[in-house]
Structure formats: structure tokens, C-alpha cells
Protein 1
Amino acid sequence: MLALTVVHARAWLHAQSMAQQMRLVDAKSLQGPDKVASAINQRLQLTEAYCWDHSSPRPRAPGIALDSPAANDGTPFSNSIDPSLDHIEQLRQACQHRCPEIRGVMIPRLHGLMLYWLVTLLKPRRVLEVESFVGYSLMWLTEAIHHTLRQSQQVQPNQPCQLPAEPPVVGCELVPEYVALIRHHLQTHQLDKLARIVQGRALDTLKHKLNTAQPFDLVFIDTNKAQYIDYYDTALDQGLLAPGGLIIVDNTLMHSRVHSQYPPVQQVLAEINRDGPNSSDYVEPTYCLTEDQAQQAAQQVYQFNQHVANDSRTEQLLMPIFDGFTLIRRKLTRA
């Protein structure tokens, strides 16, 4: 996700560009590198569609990654469907209907399901999301915590579980309209005892509005790339992340533009480009960003990745999945 104070402006300004990149134009009109990029993007979407159909538990979501009834006119593998998660997909569809341009801003469905899996596997007691946008990823995190509580209490289907005194999931959000939307959705689906949203600037919330006596076991960061380092350092310096706790950071490859700034990679690319097409012609589309904005964000993410790699307090795994997905674990003892 992008910095939410500029989401709407960027979304509307780049709607036409995004429409092309999301396959809403005639692919035959594309030439050269644009045609290659379009073909790659189509293959990625088809791959995501296949993976979604073969994953569980998932809400009912006909059309999946392609948002096209022709792509999936039924609900395959219905035993993988969990109706209790349908509200997450309904939130996604409602937000996209109101503002189609945010499609490229929200995390993909598979990404949300991966967050769900990580939470149910790791079983964190408390979860923090830094900037929640419209609440889509927050709902995945909340339902994962709900599932974990029910499992630990061995609750039978259709029976309520015992809830903690305070909501174990906390989200941060600045935009009042998004805060109201999230709170309404949580209340409507009886999840407000599991998650709460704190309104205000995320950095102020991290520094002044959270109880450090109850640190978080998992923190998800997917927001303004210029503040990645600030959010990361604050979570550690303020004691918000428990020893052994996990920070998950999204967009750490930034549309294939981050690793190309790494000197060893630059050297290899220079050798490749002597005898073939320029590799920079084949970077991934950026949807809601101009190329200049994407390069600036990539530089900020590159600095963040360097910062984390040099930090003795943590250990990390940067994976080339989605748009770059980093797991950062706080060491039990400082090196």
C-alpha cells in the first residue's frame, strides 16, 4: 500500500495507465517491451488464479485474480471454501466498486491468505498492522486470530469462543473515512472484540498510543515506503515487538526495481545488456505510480533492505514472492 494521504490523488491521476496495465486495452495494440510486459502480466494473473483455486481456506470469489466471470464461472473445489471468510471478499469488492483505481493498491487475495496462514501457524498473541487502508489485510489477520483462538479452546462449530479482555489485533489508520469503514465492518461482522483501529499518523501511534507493556508478536508493515525504516526502528526501539517476534514487510522488491540497484546485480545486468535487449525494458508495471515515483520508492525500499541487513538486532528472510516479501525476526538476545 502507498501513503494513504495521496492514495486517491495517485489513483485518479493514473487510472488510464492502470487500465492498460490491467489488461483492459487491446493487447494487439501493444508493441515491443510493452507487449512483453503485458504478456508477462497476463501469465502472472493466470498463475495467481490457479493458485487461488487450489488454496484454502478461502472466501467465495468468482473471477479470482482476473475479475472476469469467463475466467472462472463456478466455484471449484468447494470443500476449500469457508463461508465465514466471505465478508473479507465482500469488503474487497465493495471498495473496488466505489473506487476501481484502488485495485492496484490493495494486497492480492493470495497475499491475504498467506498472512492468514502465517498467523495460524505462528499463533501470535497480539498482532499490529501499520496503516490499514480500507481494512482488507486487517480482516485476514483478524480472522486468523479468531481461528487460532477457536482451535486453542477446542470450540465446536457455530459456538462462540472466549475472547480476550482487549482486542488482540490493532490497526493504525490516518484517514477518517477508512477508520469509519473498518470500524463499521468489524462491528457488522462481530469482530470488534478481536480487532480495533487507532486513528492518527502511524508513527505517532507507534510512539505514543500503544501499550509497550503488552508487546506484539507479529507486526505487518505495508505502507509509505519513505517511512519503512522509521516504522521498523520504532517497533524495535519502543519495545513494541516481543523478543522472537516477527515483522512482515511487503513490497520489498518494488516491482523488480530494487534489486537492480544492488552493485553486483548492476554488474551482471551491464554484461547482459552488451549482447541483448536492455533489461530495464522488462520491469513490472507499477499500476498507481509513475515511473519516477516507482524509482523513488524503489530507492527508499533499497535503503530499508540495507538497513535491516545491517541490523544486529534481527535476522531476516527476503523472498521473491508477490512484490517482495520479507520476514524479520527479532533475536532473543542482542548480538
Protein 2
Amino acid sequence: MQNELKDMQERYSEISLKFAEVEGARQQLVMMVLNVGSRRVQAGVFLSRLHVSQFPTSRFMAVISFAG
């Protein structure tokens, strides 16, 4: 009975450690996605404030391509 309890405790510890690792990776991914989304929103706001008349067509298209 004590051996079974010890095995269960070891298994629980392994599972807890794995969960912590996966949760850490998940949080990093969430932060990365939020950061990318924020950059796209900022780029969209920047581009929405530009006027086509400010740039020759080729430069304006290069700005759009770079931001996308």
C-alpha cells in the first residue's frame, strides 16, 4: 500500500511539473500573439493616417507590403 502511495505521489509530481512547463509555454505564446496583434493594429492605425498623395505609388505600395 505504501509503495502504491509513493508511486502515485511521484506520478503526481511528474504530471505537475509537466503541467507547469506546458502552462509556461502557453503563456509565452499568448504574449507573442498579443504582441503581434498589437503591432498589426499599430501598423494599421499608422497606414490609415497616411494619405496616398503623400507618396509616389511605388513607395506607398512598398510601405503596405512591408507592414503586412
Protein 3
Amino acid sequence: MNAIVKAVPASRRLPFHVPHRSSRQAAYVGHVLSSGSLRPGGAFSREAEAWLVQHTGAEQAILTHSCTGAMEMAALALGLGPGDEVIVPTFTFCATATAFERAGARIVFCDIDPATMMIDPEDLERRITRRTRAIVAVHYGGASADMEAICAIARRHGVHVIEDAAQAFGSTRGGRAPGTFSTFGAFSFHETKVVSCGQGGALIVNAGDPALLERVAMIVERGTDHARVRSGEKAFYEWTSPGSSFQPGEFEAAILMAEFEALEENLAHRRRIATWMIERLERMALPFAILRTDAATRSNFHFIAALARNEATAASLMAHLQSNGIDCRQHYVPLHLSPARGRWAMVHARYPVPNKPGGVSCGCRFTRACGRRMWNTALR
């Protein structure tokens, strides 16, 4: 591959992220403006949360301003704090860790499975101690982690599981939505995701424990029992618990509702184009492997990840794609190698998989033109 980056006219460049935009978005945003109320908890917020419950089968769904915010809510609801340990895969976005570090918990990194780039159940069990309170399972790139094995380990040790499903909205594992296998799940609706409202997320609550549901309700109400006032149980609200402002406004909820209604069309388009691209790439003797999901997963194709043989190959591949106007990115610097690792996290001696060089995930605009351009440039 030629590693020289040539200039490509801006009009021909294919960016890493192109948000899907439902045809109903403008009308729904107009409804919000005409209603005169932009605050959280309006008609579109309630409708979107009801849709999420029906779509996922969760006990409860709460719109949040971000996936990070949803995980911070989970940390507050579980009462995590100093002295508690939370196990996180080292190959993930930093917010997977900071959401729990912010509560005062100690982050314990575990290794990943090289076949999936997600949490390795065997290494996970080795990291559990008497201080372990929670495990965060990350679903990478539209694939799903081995939730059956992870949840079995959690049950044996009596710890909670939280699913960071930021990249997995619309995917399924054995017919179930990621985010529904554990105590809590967290989705992202950031502009870089399959479904987006610019900036947003959702907390998925799967436990039917009344005490836990009440804690979540108070956290949503910024640490008060205002929900009891609305239900008529009390005449005035009081400060009752930790909490904060986690909910988005009605503009975001309206955009999300339009996107939820268009989800199947969106996913069908992504899957059709991704399948077309992968089939052609895999016919060729290329110096990288396409990361595929396991048989239990139906991916949303958040992106297509390619695992290069070494750093030089990864750099050459990225330069080649960039020179042909196709944006791509290298994922992630493992958290145990990050500058913050010693302050807030417990770093063990060896994490052999993410220490291997060369992993590069290449994301593309899911259009037929993008597929043809990738196919043509790979032949050169």
C-alpha cells in the first residue's frame, strides 16, 4: 500500500460519521417549539422512554444527556464509592471508567479477548476480589460481549453488571437487546452513533427491585422525592438522596423519537451496505482481518473494525484510505497505558492482548458509493 497521503477534494471526502436523519425530525422539533415547553420530561420524552421499554423489554428506561451520564446514574443507584472496586476492560473509551471513578470507586482493569476485542471472561474472574462491587461489560463496534459468561461469573460472586452499550443500540444478542442482560444498561445517542440526537443517552433498568427503582427515581429528580409529589403521595418534596441533572430537553427527545420510528429502515440500510463491503474485502489477500461478530449477535454495524498485523501496516492502511478520501481512526489507547492509570485505577502486571500493536478500526459512511470506493482503492 502507498502510505503517501494525497489531497482529495472536500466534496469527495467521506467522513468517519454521517448521522442518520429521519424525515420527521423537523416536524417533531416544530411541535416542541409550538408547545412552548422545552424542559425535560415532556410528551416526546415520555413517548421515547415508553418506546425504549417496549423495544428492549426493560423494566424502565430513562433518557439522559449522555451514555456517560447514564453510567454515572448507575454508580449512584448502586451506592458505589471509596473502598469499592469496579472491573472495566482496558480496551474501551475512558468514560467507561470515569463514570465510576467519579463516584470514588477504584477501577480494576481486565484483559480482552483478541477474537472480539471485548472483555475476556476468564481474566475477568481472576480480577474479582472481596471488594468488587460491579463489572462493566462493553459492547464494541455493534458487536456484543459474552453476556452469558459475564453474568454467570457475576452471579457466582454476588456482584452487579452494568453494560456500556454506547455502540450497540439496534444490535441484538440471541434476539435480546444489549443493555438488557444486567442490572443496568447504558446507550449513547451522541452524533457519532447509529441513532443520534446530537448529544444524548439512556439508562436501561432491568431490575424489578422496588428499592432500586425508587433510588433511580430520586437520582433523576436531582436527589429529591419529587416523583411522590407528582403521584399525590406527598404535598411537598424534600432532599432525600444523591442526584443530579441527567435528563435531556424536549428538542433532543423529539429528534430521538423520529429516529426510533425510522430505526428498522436505518439498520437495514447499514447492514446491506456493510455486508456488501465486507464480502468484497474478505475475497482479497489483505494484511488485515475484519473483526466479525459471533453467531449469537446481529450487529448494527456501528463501524467496521480491521485488525492490522502490526503498527506499520495499520499506519499504511490508514494513510491509503485517507489518500482516497475515506476517513478512518485508530482505536483506543488501552486505559492501563493512559496517563491517569496510576491515580484512579489498579493496574496489574500484564494485559497481553491490548498491548499488541496494530489494531485499527476503520469507519466509513454507509452508502453504496463508499463501498465501491473502498473496493476500488483496495485493488490498487
Protein 4
Amino acid sequence: MAIYIDPAMVPDLDNIDSRVFKYLIQKHKGQLARWAKCKDYYEGRHDILAHKVDDDDDVVRFNVNYAKYVVDVGLGYYLGEPVKYNSDKADKADKQRKELEGGVKASIKNGSVKLYDPDLSQKLDISRIQDVYDNETISEIDSKIGKAIGIYGEAYEQLYANSDENPEPRSTVVNPMNCIMVRDNTVEHNKLFAIIYEIQEDLNESKYYSITVCNDHNTKEYRSRDLDNFEFYLVEGSEQEHYFGEVPVVEYQNNDERQGDFEQIIPMQDALNELFSDRVTDKKKFVNSILAMFGMTLDDDDEKELKKNRFIDGLPLDGKIEYIQKAFDENSVSVLCNDIIREIHKMTLTVDMTDENFAGNSSGQALMLKLMVMNMLVKNKMRSLEKGLKKRFEMYNHWLNVKGEMSLIDKKELDVVFTVAMPIDKPTIINMVTQLRGIVGDKTLLSQLWFIKDVDEVIENVKKQKAEEQQQYLATFGSQHAQDMETPIKDDEEKDPEKE
């Protein structure tokens, strides 16, 4: 949760007044119930399961968890493939360096001379950060962030240095129920400090709060038994400097309203749960209907005969037996269920993958049109997520620069690439690439093929293959030519006289 305060309230970030902490925590606790409800609905603990049911074995209560479906489908759609990071200028600098030979220090393009900067590629080399990302499997962190913002509407990522002999920056995802991001109340909303707290338990099963306070240059650990009054004490030796250059917490938002993917359709989710539960309850009660007898009674032998043979003889003329049932229209209930499900997908901008009309024999282009609203949703998510991922990159870069492991890189030069799980119209793409051969460059055409990961590598392999084929052809041609040279040519006198 982000809270905006007057910077004058915290003139010294190393000695924050306890009244400020109390104010912030009380504000934060006002949102805990909402986040807890979102968490419960995602994990399947819906309100219908908490309803008290009379001692009736026929009453059924269960949920159809569309809250989880909405979050997981959206997450897989834009974060199913790991996020990629590259720098276009770094690629261009690397290409320029390869083109320069024999001490040439300039290149000519479109009539203009551009001096080669030998430090350019080094400045834009992001391989060290990518190594750090690989070491901690950053794609798993990204996926957890995407999941958290889908559930709660916001998420936080705490940066720290690991405890290895050669430390590296690391990240961990923090639930918004445990994090407070404090910003100033100016138009820029600059970060002041962050509070991360959670309930812990000691060996005596006595609970306490563990609190971490992070500012732009250090972190401190506190303990508290009474968080409401923030009666806390500093853990001795816990104060540590960090080298991230700012508050080492990254904030992510799902949207401007900080709402989760399914938060607005919770009432519809409740209605759907009620409808499905009542539907199954009615079915169960139908099977267990009460048998009513009019103008007659059955003794024990008659009941056994009825249960065994499924019929009874000798009813009185005015006697009657029938089941007491509640009549219900199955078709109307089914229509209502489908209407609610359709509205859930409409309000959450997701598609129903189980809909028979969704795929069928549709072409790739038709599927793209059907997924248009979902593309609108994930583009907004990617735009918001990109901002946080670049902020993480900037702080990792600062930490590694302080340690002398890489140069500073402007985050504007970084490209964050998301791979959307979009259906591919493979025949159309292949035909397009084939038809444009000779009109558009091979590198551009190859980049359109979905199965090619590294275009430069493919082009290099093609060149090698052609060179090998040419060498093989020349070797074969040379061998044949040598054989022809060794074959003697017949003299004129050996010719057939009849042909003359």
C-alpha cells in the first residue's frame, strides 16, 4: 500500500517518530480486510462456504472458482514465457564493432560520418545483470509479481544482497498485506521509506511482529509485541547499508485503481456459487424425494416388498402414492448460469476457453480478433509491469556499479520484451515470408517465423551450410573433371567409316 505524507513529518529518516509509524500502520490496516477477501476468493474460500446450513444432508454448498481462473489465464497469457531484456543500442554497437576492421574508427551511413565509440558497447553491456537474473531465476519472481497484482491489485518487490561469499543482488516478492510504501505528497510522489512487517513466532509459541524499515541508504530490523501502539525495539546489529541508490522496494500496480482482476465481479461470483449450489441441492433432493401415501399405510413387510420388487399390490381404491417434489425448470437455470458466466468474462476482459464457439475451425486471424479484449487487458498490465521491471534493473545496475562489476546504464536504453501467447496462423506467415523473399531482407523475414529464437545465429548457420555445399560441389566437380581429363580421345582413324 502506498501512503503519501508531508516530508516534514520525517525530517530524519534514520530516526522516525513512533507516532508516524503508528499512523501509517493504522492506515494500512484499513485495507487488510479487502486484501484478505481477495486472497480467500482466489484460494477458493468463498462466502458461500461460510454460510450456516441446517441439519439437512441434502443441502450442498460449493464454489465455481472463476476468481482463480481469471487470474491464472491472464497470467499465463502474458507471462507464460519469461520476460526478455535487451538493449537495441548495445546490439547496434556490437554490430558496429564487428564491422570495423584494421583500426578503422568511423563508419559511413547515408552520407554521414559517425565516429566509433569504443566504450559504447561496454556501457550498454547488460550481460552481468542477466547473469544475476539467471542465478536467481528471475522469471519465477516476475510470475509471482504478476500473480500478486492480479489478486490484490498491487505488489511489492524487496531487493537485498544475498549472503554468499561473493554477494549478488536478489529479489523477493512481498504481499501488500505486509508492506507499506511511504511517499511524499508532492506531484512526483518520491519514495521516502518502506515498512515491511509480518507476524512471527518464537520457540515458546509467543507471537511477535518482525518489522523491516528501509530508506535510501540502509535497512533496520525491529521487533514489536504491540503493533497498534508500535512499542518496538531495534534489533542489535541489524542496521545494514545497501547500495541500491534508493529505497530498495519496487512497487507494481495492476491498474490506477489498484484493483485485482476479479475484484469487481465478486458479487457475480457469489451469485454463480449460489445458483450452482441450489441446482445440485435440488437434484439431490429430487433423488431423495419423500414418498407420500394417501388413504393407506404400509407395514414392515410391505416396505420390504416395495424396496425389493419396486412395486406394491393391493392398494385401496381411494389410495394413492406419490413423491413430494419441487418443480424446477432446468433450461431456465442453465440459461441463467450461462448469462452470469458470460458477464464474468465480459467484465474481466477474459475469454472462455471452454466455449465451443471460441476456437472450432477458426483461423489464426479470427482467434486474434476474439482475443482483442484480452490483448487490451494484458497491454495495460505489461505497461505497468514494465515500469517496475525497469526500476528493478536500475537498482541492480546501481548496486553492481558500486561494486565495480558493470557500468551505469540508462534504463531508457533497456527494452523489456513480453511474449504474448497469441494463436499463430502458421500457413499465412509462411506464405507471406515466401512471397516477400527478395523484396524484404532475410533478417526481417526470419524474425517473423515463430520457431526461430536467434535470427543472427540462423543466418550464420545458413551461410556456413551454403559454404559447405559449395565446397562439396566444387570437390565433386573437380573429381569429375579429372576423370574426364584422364579418358583418352579417339583418333580420326579409329572412327567408324560408315558414319563418314
